[in-house]
Prior knowledge:
Blueprint: E1 2-7, E2 10-13, E3 18-26, E4 33-39, E5 46-52, E6 58-60, E7 68-73, E8 78-83, E9 92-99, E10 112-113, E11 117-122
Parallel strand pairs: 2-11
Antiparallel strand pairs: 1-3, 3-8, 4-5, 4-9, 5-6, 7-8, 9-10, 9-11
Amino acid sequence: QVQLVESGGGLVQAGDSLRLSCAASGRTFSILRMAWFRQFPGKEREFVAAIGWTSGMTTYANSVKDRFAISRDSTENTVWLQMNRLKPEDTAVYYCAADRGPGSVLPREFDYWGQGTQVTVSS
């Protein structure tokens, strides 16, 4: 099992920056990739960004690729999501996820999830 704990969410104004952290523990040697997802009220969880745990290769949703950056430190078992130029439409609960194998960026492909952290961007 892998446990994931997110932190860093909060209330910011449009144009501000925020950095989310996700600390992984447990059988972290089994992780192949990690990702961030977000969920708007009443909507399905959607992909934001992913990173290879050893390769460091990154993938982004088109809606964030010029504003958000995912990074990791596999020795510290931590992944971050740097969010810049935040917009009110970025308001959502952000989730960290880990996967033991390769696959698509669909939520069902990921094996482990954190509890989520709320990000609210005021206009």
